[in-house]
Write a structure and sequence with these properties.
With 329 residues, this protein is of the alpha+beta class. A four-stranded antiparallel beta sheet has the order 1-2-3-4, with no helix packed on it.
Length: 329
């Protein structure tokens, strides 16, 4: 049997190599931590130049060092270098999308509305929409503006709300911006998006409780909010939203019919529109009740037999009359 001899010096080298390999991560982390602690001490002493240096060293050692990025952002706030601070908040959210402090710091970093000097809410809305690329109806996830453009638009929509709190277009567009930021940056924006879609809906329904016509932003708010709740799998809220929409659609029809003494009529299953003497006349058709109501100039003008049944009745009467005539002859 052969014996393997290992010299003590060889064992020492092997142990050293093992510790080097296994412990490299620990040393790596510890160095970053030491830089971070020193940077924090300088920050407390208000020596922001040294604090920046040591936080940067910590990040060089560990690019995903969340706290180092966060406090480096705080350094830049203290030195009024807000552009660099924003980049650090974004780095924090890259590492940890649920960091609430970075989220709110980032959001509060965008307060500038200097591009507009006006007392008109619409001027601020228009500038916000321009910043996000003048979208036609709503923002698409795949072709969305940059994060900076989206965040830059937020103060303009908020300013328009400050000037005119009942302007639902502002709530709708800021909800759209937050929805896309929720996809591109952090899901924390989704709650703000839901809140502003709901404000758009609440504001319009409080202002026009039984209106037949609503602005397009109102309908889009329902549609986009429903899609967002579906994506987030908030099924209970989604079901409640669609029930609310159904009730909102029913209410004006119900009210108009009740004013004329017709009870227990909801949203018409069928609506036909006809141009009569340059006026639009609506026919609200309720097949299950064999009833059609004529709606013109904002009120019920009368009722008639079901439009689908009437031709059959007329045809039957005509056939009966022709038979009677032939018998008499």
């Amino acid at each position: 049997m052969k014996k393997i001899r290992i010299h003590r010096a060889s064992i020492t080298i092997i142990i050293f190599l093992l510790f080097s390999l296994l412990g490299s991560g620990l040393v790596y982390s510890q160095d970053a931590q030491s830089f971070y602690k020193t940077g924090y001490e300088y920050f407390l002493q208000e020596n922001y130049q040294k604090a920046e240096e040591y936080y940067k060293n910590a990040i060089d050692q560990n690019p995903d060092f969340e706290k180092a990025h966060y406090w480096l952002g705080k350094v830049y706030v203290k030195t009024r270098d807000y552009g660099k601070a924003v980049q650090q908040w974004r780095e924090v959210l890259r590492i940890n999308t649920q960091n609430q402090y970075a989220f709110w710091n980032l959001l509060n970093s965008y307060t500038n509305t200097s591009s507009v000097k006006s007392n008109s809410a619409n001027d601020y809305i228009n500038e916000g929409i321009r910043l996000i690329g003048n979208p036609g109806v709503y923002l698409e996830d795949d072709n969305a503006p940059s994060i900076d453009a989206l965040l830059s638009s937020v103060p303009y929509f908020n300013k328009s709300i400050d000037i005119e709190p009942d302007l639902i277009e502002s709530y709708y567009w800021i909800a759209e911006v937050y929805r896309i930021l929720g996809v591109k940056l952090t899901s924390q924006f989704f709650n703000l998006s839901i809140e502003n879609y709901e404000k758009a809906i609440d504001t319009e329904e409080a202002r026009n409780t039984i209106s037949f016509s609503h602005p397009s932003d109102y309908w889009f708010a329902y549609s986009q909010l429903g899609e967002l709740l579906n994506d987030l799998r908030m099924n209970d809220k989604k079901e409640k939203l669609w029930l609310r929409l159904e009730n909102a659609r029913i209410l004006p029809y119900q009210q108009a019919l009740q004013d004329k003494g017709y009870i227990n009529y909801g949203f018409p299953p069928e609506i036909e529109v006809e141009l009569v003497d340059e006026k639009y006349v609506e026919y609200w058709i309720y097949p299950e009740k064999s009833m059609t109501f004529i709606f013109e100039d904002g009120e019920i003008k009368g009722e008639k037999e079901d439009l689908q049944i009437l031709p059959i009745i007329e045809q039957t009467l005509n056939e009966t009359e022709s038979i009677e005539i032939s018998i008499e002859e």
